[in-house]
Amino acid sequence: MTTNASAIQTITDLANLHPTKEALREFRKKYSLDSELDSSAAKYGKNEDERLLFFRDLAQRLWTDVGDAGGLDILHHLLFLSGWPGANVGIDWRRQRIIYRPQSTLEAAFYALLTHNHLAKRCANPDCAAPFFIAERVDERYCSTRCKRIGRLANKREWMREARRKG
Question: Which of 31-45, 55-69, 147-161 bottoms out in mean pLDDT, i.e. has the lowest?
Fold first, then answer.
């Protein structure tokens, strides 16, 4: 199916998806989601664009280490109750655990968000064009070196203003 890195990239791109026709079409084309957004997913919207925006909004709702109850209920249904019962759950006897096998690109993406929710961050730069990212460390605040530079510059300016006031 998909690798963990590609699932992380998918969920990050989904959360940062802009609601323009062009961006939606490009996203569906890049990730081959037309079959996942067909009429079988009609409960999530009237057409493919509405369904894709529904999943984008769901990703943004869940993009914290807390999540919200309504979003978690939808995620539970998406990961465990859609499709053939039990088809996506298996047993790894050697490691003594239950494993999850995503059946689609969207399932893999949301499962990656679930397993990396402690690293799911929102960029501290308020003007960032793609603020949702999966950090490498828990204490990261910025999505890129560019945003980090902007943040440091803003902090320096604020420090200088305070220093001038004091005097």
Answer: 31-45
Q: pLDDT tens, 63-73? A: 976 778 888 88
Pair of tokens at residue 66: 């807390």
What is the average per-residue pLDDT within 92-114?
91
Q: Which two tokens stand for residue 17?
A: 């998806």
